[in-house]
Design a protein that fits this description.
The complex is a heterodimer of chains A (167) and B (77). A four-stranded parallel beta sheet of chain A has the order 3-2-1-4, with helices on both faces. Chain A has a single domain, classed as Hypothetical Protein Ychn, Chain: A, CATH 3.40.1260.10. The two termini of chain A are 32 Å apart. Chain A has 167 residues and is of the alpha/beta class. Chain A is 46% helix and 12% strand. The longest helix of chain A is centred in the first third of the chain and has 16 residues. By secondary structure, chain B is an alpha+beta fold. Chain B has one domain: 2-Layer Sandwich (Translation Initiation Factor IF3). Chain B has a four-stranded mixed beta sheet with strand order 1-2-4-3, covered by helices on one side. In chain B, β1, α1 and β2 form a beta-alpha-beta unit. The radius of gyration of chain B is 11 Å and the shape is globular. The chains are: A alpha/beta (167), B alpha+beta (77). Chains A and B meet through α2 of A and α1 and α2 of B.
Chain lengths: 167, 77
């Protein structure tokens, strides 16, 4: 307890709410998160609503509890590799082009950013209410996600944070 | 400027030079100087900001054509 708690307590905190599930917005969130961690900050990301799509596994079915929710999660499948740009998606053409441009400029993919953030100790917590409403269970999210938390946990983290953002 | 170690960030955009610098600095001893070679102009703003936040010392920059060299001394743990 003591050795993991003590240094973290002295670190400055950053807390992000990731509400959006588009590729461009997710990239912005992860660029800020990985940079914050690189600057020695303790970073927590709260994923709510469409933001949960970022954390969903790339492979496997949509999942979820109950028939209707399973249908919805199949259509709203998520997964970092499946996200669309908020503009210029153009049935995948624009998004594919942007991914190609990023690759050419050696900018990591969203998937790579997520792994990088996890390696840096960025906490990624799904919102319990969104998960409940959409029937999402923890096993649908990629490894290293969690635990589920609510608004009170976020507010307490945000209260102690020097930087808080809603994306 | 004399450096103890060098980090090649040519061709990389934000946030990769910062991410790599943070990783590299962990391998350095206190007092040692790291040279970061980059070609993204943003580094001239980003690296002093990184140093200020992390408690390391920003020593300055040298520009040669499109290549930018920035120097940071490890003064934090």
């Amino acid at each position: 307890m003591a050795d993991s708690d003590a240094p973290a307590a002295q670190k400055e905190k950053m807390t992000l709410v990731v509400f959006s599930g588009e590729l461009d917005r997710a990239l912005a969130a992860f660029i800020i998160a990985t940079t914050g961690a690189s600057m020695g900050m303790d970073v927590t990301m709260f994923f709510t609503f469409w933001g949960l799509n970022i954390l969903k596994k790339n492979e496997g079915p949509g999942g979820g509890k109950g028939f209707l929710r399973r249908m919805m999660n199949r259509m709203n499948r998520g997964g970092a590799r499946r996200l669309k740009l908020s503009k210029f998606h153009m049935f995948g053409l624009g998004t594919g082009m942007m991914k190609q441009f990023m690759k050419e400029n050696r900018v990591p993919s969203l998937d790579e950013f997520i792994v990088m953030a996890q390696e840096m100790g960025v906490k990624m917590m799904p919102c319990t209410t969104s998960c409940g409403v959409m029937g999402l269970t923890e096993d649908l999210f990629r490894e290293g996600t969690g635990p589920l938390a609510g608004a009170a946990y976020f507010i307490n983290e945000a209260r102690e944070s020097k930087v808080t953002l809603f994306i | 400027m004399q450096a103890d170690d060098t980090l090649d960030c040519v061709g990389l955009y934000c946030p990769m030079p910062i991410v790599k610098t943070a990783q590299k600095m962990k391998q350095l001893e206190k007092g040692q100087v790291l040279e970061i070679v980059a070609d993204d102009k943003g580094i001239k703003q980003d690296m002093p900001a990184w140093a200020k936040t992390t408690g390391n010392e920003y020593l300055g920059e040298e520009e040669d054509g499109g290549e930018i060299k920035v120097y940071v001394r490890k003064t934090a743990d």
